[in-house]
Amino acid sequence: MSSEFGKILKVSVFGQSHGTAIGVNIDGLPAGEKIDLEELQRFLDRRRPGKNALSTARSEADKPIFLSGLMEDTTCGAPLCAIIENSDPHSKDYGELASKPRPGHADYTAWVKWKGYADMRGGGHFSGRLTAPLCIAGGIAKQILARRGIYVGAHLQVVGGLADQSFPPAPTLELFREVAEKPFPVLNDQAGEQMQALILSAKEGLTSVGGSVECVATGVPAGLGDPMFDGVENRLAAALFGIPAVKGVEFGIGFAASAVMASDSNDPFAVRDGSVFTETNHAGGILGGITTGMPIVLKVAVKPTPSIAREQQTVNLSKMENAKLTIHGRHDPCIAHRAVPVVEAVTAAVLLDLLLEGNHGTF
Amino acid sequence: MSSEFGKILKVSVFGQSHGTAIGVNIDGLPAGEKIDLEELQRFLDRRRPGKNALSTARSEADKPIFLSGLMEDTTCGAPLCAIIENSDPHSKDYGELASKPRPGHADYTAWVKWKGYADMRGGGHFSGRLTAPLCIAGGIAKQILARRGIYVGAHLQVVGGLADQSFPPAPTLELFREVAEKPFPVLNDQAGEQMQALILSAKEGLTSVGGSVECVATGVPAGLGDPMFDGVENRLAAALFGIPAVKGVEFGIGFAASAVMASDSNDPFAVRDGSVFTETNHAGGILGGITTGMPIVLKVAVKPTPSIAREQQTVNLSKMENAKLTIHGRHDPCIAHRAVPVVEAVTAAVLLDLLLEGNHGTF
Amino acid sequence: MSSEFGKILKVSVFGQSHGTAIGVNIDGLPAGEKIDLEELQRFLDRRRPGKNALSTARSEADKPIFLSGLMEDTTCGAPLCAIIENSDPHSKDYGELASKPRPGHADYTAWVKWKGYADMRGGGHFSGRLTAPLCIAGGIAKQILARRGIYVGAHLQVVGGLADQSFPPAPTLELFREVAEKPFPVLNDQAGEQMQALILSAKEGLTSVGGSVECVATGVPAGLGDPMFDGVENRLAAALFGIPAVKGVEFGIGFAASAVMASDSNDPFAVRDGSVFTETNHAGGILGGITTGMPIVLKVAVKPTPSIAREQQTVNLSKMENAKLTIHGRHDPCIAHRAVPVVEAVTAAVLLDLLLEGNHGTF
Amino acid sequence: MSSEFGKILKVSVFGQSHGTAIGVNIDGLPAGEKIDLEELQRFLDRRRPGKNALSTARSEADKPIFLSGLMEDTTCGAPLCAIIENSDPHSKDYGELASKPRPGHADYTAWVKWKGYADMRGGGHFSGRLTAPLCIAGGIAKQILARRGIYVGAHLQVVGGLADQSFPPAPTLELFREVAEKPFPVLNDQAGEQMQALILSAKEGLTSVGGSVECVATGVPAGLGDPMFDGVENRLAAALFGIPAVKGVEFGIGFAASAVMASDSNDPFAVRDGSVFTETNHAGGILGGITTGMPIVLKVAVKPTPSIAREQQTVNLSKMENAKLTIHGRHDPCIAHRAVPVVEAVTAAVLLDLLLEGNHGTF
Asked: pLDDT tens digits, residue range C297-355?
């Protein structure tokens, strides 16, 4: 299943940017979970475009319609299907693109795979718009996890080389909330202002800028995940690379590992109040693919939005010759900040899947 | 299945560091593929320990015994199971570890998961030794891919912050072979000598050092992989994070994406000899999860070997109190260089799986 | 994923009998396949209730609304999601059932699984109504298969012990069409009249009657399916048991095998026009889990509709005491005849999945 | 994975009839489970050939060698791999078969799939001999289930149309043991003697005879399994059709459903000692794919051994012409009685998988 992830909790996304509707089918949600639909909407609004000059002008209400899986506002065990109708597609902006693949987009690979039958309007099924249904799944997962003391938060770590500070070792729910409520999701607002200035300058320069997102989950019990290929890192990475524009995923110390000695990488164990913890968390809460009980810490690299207003070199696929392309329409000068809730969403959904599966290491 | 990856070609690894044997079961290999067993052995020898001061002194012949799946030396379609007998375990070196988890190892999470029943001798099923059967699978996959013009090569990119040069945009089979035959797998031997000096100095300092590996696959046809969660990046990452000590995976521009503008991230399309290519390859050969036909380029971060000879702080799990631990026995002062063929192996196995699945985007 | 089947082509069903909508998400359809929506509707109408006294009076138009995956009427490679709105639920008919599980239904097991949060109105997600979206998937699969010369047909084999004749060894498309167009899908209309009389007499007797369905697929190439647990029988059975009320699945000679000698079970091979066939087809087109190239022949047992108007003994789950139950509302005195297109649908979807996967036994 | 089944507990079988060894890799076994190796051997001996005139004269000790997954005799959480060396292959008996497929065997489909590279000696990977490693997995599963009060037993239900009596509604462990210890596993020994006479007469007539097996599991908690396609019936059927020669699987009333009214098919609910049960068990312990808490009852049809000593018609695949074939060597005049422990084994492994997954319907 190409547009699906999960083992016990399966999240399956459908829709194209300019189709009738986009949506998600979530199979395996536990029954009896009340969904706070207003809180879910606030979560979706964090990702929603059209709010300011930092993102695309495409305006979508992103109101989910629930087709199944809920009784009143409570899960009933049956698959939960929710859709979002596409209200503001502007398909004519994309006419020329049917034969001229946009550099950095999936237009060309979609054409190779589906031989010209692909829906190339607005990126079709590859559009960043498909992250809206992902956020429905993740927003629901976040609520269910929170009820068990597991909190997932994220912030914009880097934009165009400008870095925010990192989360503290044990971020509180309050800190997660504080960042989530900011219009620009950083810990250090001064850094955030510099980042925003850079994004606006990229916009003026008819280009776009990349970034990265840090995500942390606290309260995750030790013992989740399985060795080797079914570990927490494997499952999170497999899902996170499904977010459009993600080019790297790392846990804990990540790529910094290649520059350090064991003393900066091993986490000493210690006992406090009868339970084991580590004094540092370079492992990002995962050893041997299995959770340690420490916060899960991951980072995700997001490439600059490929759609830019500058003229670019491409090919005309119907004539098989070189061509020039100028993309019109509405585009994000940066998508890393809008990816923040999406990374949270995917992380939360995978963690709920792991929690539902539980630790069956012994009976 | 925790110790398995793949969809059409399934690679399943079993065994513990100090058990009777370790091995791999490969289900879904095409029939009629002759395996050059000497070439396979040479590939396994690249990973094999005990060759010099840069790796553990544990000496293992790593000769595979084929139990099934071959007629003479040719695949017959049935699952191929191959085992390696453990000849030099030295289990007594690990006695104390049963109750004192080694920082940075999976000892503690194994204990949480399997409640003291885990085989903790030498890391048990989490041992780096399990990468030997992975190399059997990958070595076979490399031979089958090579017959179709697909070549996979890797080199040590960084050790302790010291960097080798990168692969050129289109590395040749000769270059791959040249690096593979070196005792220390780098492109620039001067950089390699500095790295080796650093590793030996880490060894003298009773510590270890991390690194990263760059891996490239050439000749991969466009159109493999599927959108969103069943893409080439998702499947490669899910498998690569199964290699012990890997903490990060990136494709193409990877985390550098967070510091650049679209002009350094988009790859212009062009036509040459009637086919489409990109003039740069920041995408690492993958757009929208689907191969572009350009080389696949990925990097993997490998943490410093957690087993070091210095005294470390840990806990005594039977007494639930803080404790000191000094690990004796034989250990690698760096595992990044030994990870080079393992990254090749896993990449090759995943690519063969994708190739067998083929592009069923249209009939 | 509980409500999903398939490997390359994934069919995922959602919705509850009395919810907002029911639907299907089909991931992995090849692009470029034109769907004849009128033909699809005719197929759906074969399953649709409310047409005569032989089935429930619940009247549903069963008109699919396509949310994604189509450009005009042609598949575009993205997941195809189609829904059917529930127009005639009559939920009040089911009030008492919330605490009194209907014998033979999944009410009790749903209650055990979802602890009273289950949507028990009309059987919820377990309702036979969920076979409508299955028929959307299967109807599309049938069109795609037919374009490749693969035809799937079915008829009612038995009702209440009264048997129709069996399909001839190599049924033609014309025969499949002829049966499909009949209001009561049997080969022998005289047998069909007796069956209908029995169904009506069961209705008058406030009970219901069971039956079985025979399904045949012609034109299936040899070599599909894999050994042991990923064979054609395994995959078809796993999907067919997902049809509500199915209690048995057999291939070729099936359970009759237990009464015969090898001479009535082995199929002699022979050569005709340079290709191999078997002179009989007791194997039902499958040997060792792999297709032989002969027609696939299977039978499915369908139990009597559990909802009957007679008073039955059950329990009151809130009081944990014995209770009497009389089910009001609209029910089918037999569902085996309505299962005929559903068995076709599921068989077609699984065969398309196998065909898309193809034979990768050798490169 | 073609030769694998299971979701949490994965059972993967490898080997060919005349290869070096056959074996099983079991991933996901809970740790801390002591395996009584003598009891396991007794279970394997029930399937072992060469004991009397009713089965093939091929003599195999079928002693498993454990390569991984055990510490002493207790599971350690790592994948358990066990092999059986092939000691008595007699490959020369099979020479002619390389080009002449045996009717009723997978020789022809293996040839189509693997283009002549298949190991056709003794049926290769399709051989009934592969059920020995299945019995290792199932024998271990049976011990783990028994410790939780879940017992699995089976008997030969029918041979050549001659029927044994059925299991009583709630068979005891003692009854299961009694049947298991009989050299010919039937409930009614008089019926058993008639069956044996029929098998011996088939042998004398140079043919073979089919049969069926009834299997029951008691003590299974209510609430296991998931709706539609991940139900208990789906998962059991998918695995049971992996046993060579199985052509039908039914649960509870099974195909008899097609001859009855709802009164003979619905099971009235009742309360006893504060818990719910059904007074009859036509559902075979499963409603809506989910266990009811009543015994699971299933039947499996086993075709006559395809290898018979009579001359049969086949084709010469290298010359593509009709040919005659007389199979020499050692063959079973019936395999249904030897399938009895195999059906138990597969049923037990699937039930342990379901039990490990547990009921995550609510948190």
From this structure: 999 999 999 999 999 999 999 999 999 999 987 788 999 999 999 999 999 999 999 99
Collect all residues with Cβ–Cβ distance below 8 Å to A132 and sequence separation of at least 6: A22, A44, A47, A48, A60, A62, A84
Side chain identity, residue B40: L
Burial of residue D124 (number of CB atoms within 10 Å: 0-12, 13-18, 19+) = buried
Give me the residue label for tokens 């509405």: A330
Give the pair of three-digit tokens for residue A346: 């995917």
List, for residues C170-200, the tens digit of each pLDDT value: 999 999 999 999 999 999 999 999 999 999 9
Least confident of B346-355, C53-62, D22-31, D288-297: C53-62
Nearest to D106 among C237, C260, C290 (CB): C290
Please state, in angstroms and as integers, the Cα–Cα distance from residue D117 to each residue in B139, C270, D92, D107, D316, following that order: 21, 22, 18, 11, 16
* Separation CA C73–CA C41 (nearest Å): 13
Q: Report in angstroms the alpha-carbon separations of A108 from A18, A315, B62, B240.
A: 18, 10, 44, 27
- Copy the structure tokens of residue A20: 């009738």
Q: CB D76 to CB B114 under 8 A?
A: yes
Flag residues of chain A having pLDDT under 70. 1, 50, 57-58, 88-97
Can you tell me the mean pLDDT for C206-230?
Answer: 97
Instruction: Write out the two tokens for D358.
Output: 């547990």
Contact present, D243 and C286 (Cβ < 8 Å): no
Half-sphere exposure of C219 (CA within 13 A, CB side): 17
Residue D95 has pLDDT above 70, yes or no: no
Helix then strand then coil, % of chain A, to nearest 5: 30, 25, 45
Fold of B4-357: Chorismate synthase, AroC fold (3.60.150)
Contact D287 C255 (CB under 8 A): no
Q: Can you tell me whether residue D162 is helix, strand or coil?
A: strand
Q: What is the pLDDT of residue C331?
A: 81
Q: How many helices (H) and strands (E) does chain B have?
A: 7, 18
The alpha carbon torsion through B46, B50, B51, B53 (nearest 10 deg) reads 120
**Rounded Cα distance, C246 and C302, in Å:** 5
Token pair of C29, please?
A: 């359809």
What pTM was computed for the model?
Answer: 0.97
Q: What is the reported pLDDT for A196?
A: 97
User: Which residues are paired to D287 by β-bridges?
Assistant: D290
pLDDT digits (tens, 9 = 90+) for D54-85: 877 667 788 999 999 999 999 999 999 999 99
Beta-carbon pairs below 8 A across chains B and D: 174
Paired residues of B235 in beta bridges: none
Please name the fold of domain D93-357.
Chorismate synthase, AroC fold (3.60.150)
> What are the structural domain ranges in chain D?
93-357
- CA of C26 vs chain B CAs: smallest distance (Å): 14
**Would the pLDDT of D250 be above 70?**
yes
| Secondary structure of residue C341 in the 3-state scheme | helix
Check A211 against B258: CB less than 8 A apart. Answer: yes
End-to-end Cα spacing for chain A: 31
Q: Each residue of C106-131: pLDDT tens digit? A: 999 999 999 889 998 888 999 999 99
Residue D136 · residue D21 · CB < 8 Å: no
| Residues A266, B104: Cα–Cα separation, whole Å | 5
Q: Which two tokens stand for residue D8?
A: 């949490």
Q: How far apart are CA C298 and CA C307, in angstroms?
A: 27
Distance from CA of D129 to the nearest CA of B (A): 14
Give the per-residue pLDDT at A96: 64
Of 3.40.50.2300, 3.40.50.720, 3.30.420.40, 3.60.150.10, the CATH number of A92-357 is: 3.60.150.10
In this complex, the residue of A222, A241, A261 whose CB is nearest that of residue B233 is A241
